[in-house]
Amino acid sequence: MKKVLLLFFIILCSCKIFTQSLDYQLQYKASGDHYIQINITSSQPIPCPAMFIMPRSAPGTYGYIPYDRFVEEVKAIDNQGVTIQVQKGEGSRWMLGDSTQILHSISYRVNLKKMEAELLQASDSSKIRKGYLGLLGYSIFGYIDKHVQDKIQLTIQAPLNYPIFSTLQPNAHPPTGKLTLEIENFAILADGQIMLGPDLYIKEYEALVPLFVVGYAETATNFDEVGRLGVESIRLLKDYFGTIPFQHYTIHQEYLKPLDEQHEYGFSMEHLNSATVFADVSTAITAPLNEAQFKRRLFGLVHHIGHAWIPLRCYGKGYRPFAWEFAPIIEYIWLHEGFIWYITAEEILKLPQRGIPFFKDIVYNSPEAVQRLSLQELNQLASSHYSEDFIFGQNCFARGALMAHDINLMIKEKTKDKKSFQDAIRYLFERFQKDPQPITFENLPKLIQDGTGVDVSEAIKKWMQPIKK
Asked: How many domains does the chain have?
């Protein structure tokens, strides 16, 4: 028995010793520099040829974003400190070394100024200004192929007077000059945002969970109103879903002067524990909001924070695991976006200007070529063109919202108002937390029937088809 226990102990220790981990270092050396430097070091040798990959998409972007275009000076060394040959391959890949070599580390730099200049959608790009950096994880961090599940230690180094804030470990009084984080894997690293610089606004607000507002504005801004909006958004969403799936939340708010007329600032992005909200200075909140203004402003935050429930923690087939190096075909954007649009506009805020008439106007006044598309075909197009050609994005969420509306009417009618769409959504979310099987066209009717007792397959089938006037 003692020998068995000793053998078990040796095996356990060996597994711990040889667990693969990666050390990521991010360096920003001086104010005014347009670059950040990234170094990746492996705890264990990686046989060559190896592959280094930069993302070209991210969950929720529904688009193709060539972040590899802004990566420069990729270098690699072996475990003896000898330089390994690096060749740019197809797509966003770099080939590292040959079969006689062992990879130890990779380094590269990211040209942030070029990224913002060439990516016209503000929500796609990291930003750099004098005294401020706003970094989207998936826009700056690459990965070694077959090592996306490795544990990561991230060290961020900046000038000594630069506070460093991470949405992965938020702190109202962050350290300056250096921050080190332990991160589960690449997906978590890529999902996070890093903000740093002496011109940051950072404040924690009292909500149902700790709420942080981190901002940068190129005009006078009342960030306390952003915090008030965030507090109310979380309260409303908790009332609707019945639970809060995150332990803390960060609103990263930017108000920027447009670089030129081509750059667009209307889209924001959702993340597991945060939302990045990008706007131009003309929309900045400069004074306390009255009741009507407050309710109008709520829509954007309720919508984006609501994505922390759907799709980030309850999603359709194809959403995860994510294919970082291209925009994957996702046929459930109508669920991810449409259901949250419906919940925000109709169920929570009851905004007529964003409700059913608005959705119908989009669907029934869209070009005939779009109306002839089935919901599946429409989503396939929107998978890579959601915001690039917003007619696809709008029709995805509008058809999904109208489907949700019909489901709601059907459930209420069959149960004599004892149950509703809210009961269906709560069941879907709770079921997913226990059994994370993606939602599909095939299983959605049964799931809703399990949660409400009502067969809504006809409502779903109706909106799967091309539009009939």
From this structure: 3
> Is the CB of residue 70 less than 8 Å from the CB of residue 115?
yes
Are 174 and 165 in contact by the 8 Å Cβ rule? The answer is: yes
Pairing of strands 274-280, 249-256: parallel
pLDDT the model gives residue 79: 87
Nearest one of 63, 193, 199, 74 to 138, comparing CA atoms = 193
**Shared-domain flag, residues 166 and 211:** no
- Angle separating helix axes 390-415 and 444-452, nearest 10 degrees: 40
Residue 62 domain-assigned (yes or no): yes
Distance of CA 190 to the CA centre of its chain: 9
Q: What sign has the CA pseudo-torsion 294, 295, 296, 297?
A: positive
Q: Which among 306, 321, 355 is the end of a domain?
A: 306
Q: In this predicted model, what pLDDT tens digit does every residue of 344-373 receive, in sequence order?
A: 999 999 988 889 999 999 999 999 999 999
For residue 7, is pLDDT > 60?
no
Give residue-wise pLDDT tens across range 53-82: 999 999 999 999 999 999 999 999 998 899
Other beta carbons within 10 angstroms of residue 371's beta carbon come to 16
Instruction: State the Cα–Cα distance between residues 289 and 228, nearest whole angstrom.
Output: 10
Q: Is the pLDDT of residue 309 over 90?
A: yes
Structure tokens at 274: 């945060």
Judge contact between 253 and 215, C-beta under 8 A: yes
Same domain, 341 and 424: yes
Q: What 8-state DSSP symbol labels residue 336?
A: I
**Which of 296, 306, 373 lies closest to 339, judged by CA?**
306
DSSP characters over 119-179:
--BGGG--EEETTEEEEEHHHH--EETT-TTSEEEEEEE--TT-BEEETTS--SS--BSEE
Identify which of 354, 210, 359, 216 has the alpha carbon closest to the alpha carbon of residue 274: 210
Cis peptide before 311 (omega within 30 of 0): yes
Closest CA to 298 of 242, 247, 236, 213: 236
The terminus-to-terminus CA distance of the chain in angstroms comes to: 76
Judgement on whether residues 155 and 262 belong to the same structural domain of the protein = no
Structural domain boundaries enclosing 227: 201-306
Q: Which amino acid is at 351?
A: L
CATH number at residue 249: 1.10.390.10
Residues 251 and 338 in one domain: no
Each residue's pLDDT tens digit, 414-452: 999 999 999 999 999 999 999 999 999 999 999 999 999
Would residue 7 count as lying in a domain? no
Taking CA atoms, 460 is separated from 14, 20, 62, 427, 468, in Å, by 52, 45, 23, 17, 15
Query: What whole-number distance in Å separates Cα of residue 352 and Cα of residue 363?
Result: 16
Beta strand extents in 219-365 (DSSP E only): 249-256, 269-270, 274-280
Q: Where residue 368 sits, what CATH number does that domain have? A: 1.10.390
| Residue 22, token pair as written in the block | 């990666």
